[in-house]
């Protein structure tokens, strides 16, 4: 049980890390093949291919995103689990503007032969500054990973 808890937490952290680094392959690897991703104002994305396509399209408008996982809860039941996570995001838009966002993911997870994956992620915006945040500062690319 502790191993599963740690593995799911790692999944959540790897997801946010891939967002920050804009790593499509690492981000896609967090999803089950038949996953469901629900974002406010967007059509539901069913299946890994549609989920990744939605993410790639969304990220194209954001030259910089910092997604920080704050804390969460988990309930594990065998090969399935559910959880809730709170996060903050600072996003810079292609036009130079940006926003500060606080949100929550409600998740379902499935244990696969390749480890725990998201079977569902439902995102809710808890606070959004509606683009009033000052994102006029310098943003830098994520540094190369070290081994």
Task: Outline the structure in words.
- The protein has 3 helices and 6 strands.
- Strands 2-1-6-5-4-3 form a 6-stranded mixed beta sheet, covered by helices on one side.
- The radius of gyration is 15 Å and the shape is globular.
- It has one domain: Nuclear Transport Factor 2, Chain: A (Roll), CATH 3.10.450.50.
- It is of the alpha+beta class.
- The longest helix has 20 residues.
- Helix content is 25%, strand content 45%.
Q: Would you tell me the overall average pLDDT?
A: 92
Q: Proportion of β residues?
A: 35-45%
Could you say which structural class the secondary elements and strand pairing correspond to? alpha+beta
The main β sheet shows up as: 6 strands, mixed
According to DSSP, the number of beta strands is: 6
Highest-level CATH class: Alpha Beta
Q: How many domain units?
A: 1
Order of helices and strands: HHEEHEEEE
State the low-pLDDT regions, or none.
none
Distance N to C terminus: 29 Å
Q: Taking Cα atoms only, what radius of gyration do you get, to the nearest Å?
A: 15 Å
CATH topology: Nuclear Transport Factor 2, Chain: A
| CATH architecture descriptor text | Roll
| Order of adjacent strands in the largest pleated sheet | 2-1-6-5-4-3
Give keywords.
six-stranded mixed sheet; 147 residues; alpha+beta; 45% strand; Nuclear Transport Factor 2, Chain: A; 6 strands; 3 helices
Secondary-structure blueprint:
Blueprint: H1 2-21, H2 24-28, E1 31-38, E2 45-46, H3 48-59, E3 64-77, E4 80-92, E5 98-112, E6 115-128
Parallel strand pairs: 1-6
Antiparallel strand pairs: 1-2, 3-4, 4-5, 5-6
